[in-house]
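Quick entry, no commentary yet.
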Amino acid sequence: MEALGYVTTVIVAVLVAALGQWLIARKVTADGRFGYLLVLALLGAWGGSRLFGPLGPIESLSKVGPSIGGFYLLTGVLGAVILVLTAVYPLRQALRGESTDVAQIGIRDPQVAHWLFNDTRSAPLWLGVRLYLGYQWLEAGWHKLEDPRWTQGGTALKGFWERAVAIPENGRPPIVYGWYRDFIQFMLDRGWYDWFAWLVIAGELLVGIGLIVGGLVGIAAFFGAIMNLNFMLAGTASTNPVLFSLGILLILAWKVAGYWGIDRYLLPALGAPWSPGRLFRWHAPAHA
């Protein structure tokens, strides 16, 4: 997609989000609802224009209709409208004071989910997962740190990127999604592998250390899963699917996964943006 295509995507998303907010409140203002609708519209517009491949005689379902700078209007607008309109109904419910919690209609989480993700009795299980996953990341980062092909010019990463973007004459290319191939090619053309190799090394080491000591486990697992996802998008399976799955589970269990670790003391002190910990609780002085 060209620059004009991205601009068109944003314009379409803003217009569809504004339509959605008008349907909810009969006015358009820059508030939380509009921000939420805008995110949905951007995802829908971009996804509708880029993500759906061949279907029978159709070369690509996402390339139906006219395009502007690589943004396909028909499927892009349709994707944005679908996501935004499906958000309008529950947002209108909330505006009327009606409950949008599915538990109110009898759809509740099983007890095992509460035990796994909210009960410290499951912490030993997550400790085992943490130690295994953390060691895998620590070993991978340490191996790269000792390899001059990674630390001296990033030639190993350069070779990986070159193999990933190659399109063979026969068979499927390593990278399935064209947008990701363009992203890798963009970095390759600018020689970013030199410093990006160090970013990969630092990321793997920090994720490994964070998981092993149990410090900010949810954040460490998130960045680990992001690295796994990028390796898989580049066409490398190896152990990445397993490590990615374990990382997602640790993200879900972020409240208890680090209980036998630094998070046992760090999380109550820091809290979360929606639930400040002891360090960020400011109490007004008592009046005599």
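second:
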Amino acid sequence: MTNLPLPATVQENFTVQRVLEESVRLLTDARTDAPKAQAEWLLLSLLKLSRSQLHLEADHRCLTHQQKKVFRDWLRRSAAGEPVQYITGETEFFGLPFTLTGDVLIPRPETERLVEIAINEANESKEFSVLDIGTGCGSIAVSLACSLKEISVTATDNNRNALKVAQLNAKKNGVASRIQFIDHDILNDEVENCFDIIVSNPPYVPLKEYKALQDNVRCFEPREALTEDADGLTFYRSFAAKGKNWLREGGMMILEVGCGKHPLHAKELFESAGWTEVELSNDYNGDPRVLKAKRP
């Protein structure tokens, strides 16, 4: 894959439009998903333009020598299946900019639904505390802090490199002073304080399903953020059994869940453990992807 010929437009002094057309052909030949969208994403990030600006300038703007050099490398990586978010080192989540590295999971739209539900719950009170377990790039913690000015957030992860990325994103979005980042293993370490809301997008892909994931996910995203190498319910068992001790009376646990039968299995764990108001909420595709449970 790395020996694929680069489009002539990246080598010659052609316009951005020609670069885009040839790049789409190359990525199509490499059988990448959504080749046009990937090529556009790479160019948008490289040139720091909006999509409308890109197309307005495409017929007369050319890449500089340095831009050509970077774009050649980006195309090679994209043709090899690496997600564009890792190639460019950035993505958008909940309308906010986030820096990404290979140490963190790429945030998905399903997780935006979790943030929306957490905001709705939090609006009932001006001052409250949130615990974000397994913060990764900080997408949930930072989005909540940006949306709700009165909250205090504690964000934990047992990956120190991920915590560094999350801290960078908190600073980038102007909320670093309102988020405390802690190196913490939720399965083995105690939670010292009680919170009003706990949010988490824990590893939930069963091991047998992890092995069948698409290569652009399995080969590039951190394994420990996707699967706990078991049935995908390890964290939910722990949350259901211990989570009441981490919440104040009437506090809420809000979790992302997987696909298929996973949401129902997770819901049953919380119901069996005596939680109240245990509910599943659908994502934008109509699939149950967020679990909400209240401490009695």
